[in-house]
Amino acid sequence: MNEQYYFVFCKESVLLERCTSSTFTIPRAVEPPTALKPWTQLLNIAPMNDGTPVKAYTIDHPDYIDETRYELCPLRQSYYKLSNELYLKAGKCAELIYWNNNTRYCGVCGAPMKLHTDISKRCTQCGKEVWPQLATAVIVLIHRGPDEVFLARGLNFRTDFYGLIAGFVETGETLEEATKREVMEETGMQIKNLRYFGSQPWPYPSGLMVGFHADYAGGEPHLQREELLKGGWFHRNNLPNLPEKLSIARQLIDDWLKEY
Length: 260
Hints:
By secondary structure, this protein is of the alpha+beta class. Helix content is 16%, strand content 37%. The protein has helices at residues 84-101, 175-187, 248-257, and strands at residues 4-10, 13-18, 24-25, 28-29, 43-45, 54-58, 70-74, 113-117, 120-123, 129-130, 135-144, 148-154, 165-168, 190-202, 207-218, 228-235.
C-alpha cells in the first residue's frame, strides 16, 4: 500500500502534522494518523496534483490524536499554516464530509443513501441519485472614482473588520443580476460597469464566491440593518480593518490598491 494524505477533521478543525516548530503539513503515510473506529467512514477524495491518493474522515474527540506530532487547527486558520494546494484540498474534504453527513437518507422516500461514486450517492430503495451541492454567492467591491470604495461591517462578522457587499444568487438570476440586487437591497445604491474578478471555493460549509468590481451609479447609502451594522465610503489612504488575506474580499481590495 502506498502513502496517502489523510485529512482528519474534528468538528471545525483539521489535523496538522508538525514538520518543525513553525511549519506544518497534512499527515502523509501508509496508515491513518489516528486509530479508526468500527463506525469510521473513509471518504475517497480526488488525488493531489502529483497523484498522491487522498482520504478524509472525522474523529469525535481530540484525545484520539498524538499531540507530540499533531495539532488540531480551525480550517480557516490552516490557510496560514499549509501550502495553498493542501489548504484547498482540506476545504474540498470538509465539504464532502459535510455533504456525506447531511445526505444519509433519501429526500424522496426516506430510505438510506449509499455512496455510488466518490461524489455521488444513490438511494438504496428508489434509486434517486444526489451529488454535492454548492451555494453560489456574489461579492462586489464598489468604486466611486479612482480613490474611494464602499466597505461595510456585517452583523455576523466575528471581528471588527469591514468587508464587501455579498449575498447568495437566487434561482432564475444571472450573477450580474444577483450582484445588482444585493447592492440595492443592502445599501439602496445602484451600480454599473460590473467587471468579473475571479471566484473562490468557500468551504464554510459549501460555497462558491464569485467576485466583481463595479462602479457607483447613484443613490444614497441606506443600510439594511438586518444584514449590516456599519458602512460607508473609504479613501485608499484611510482604510479600516480589512478582511483576512484568505478571502476573495481581501483579494478584491488588494487588486484595487495595486492600480495606483
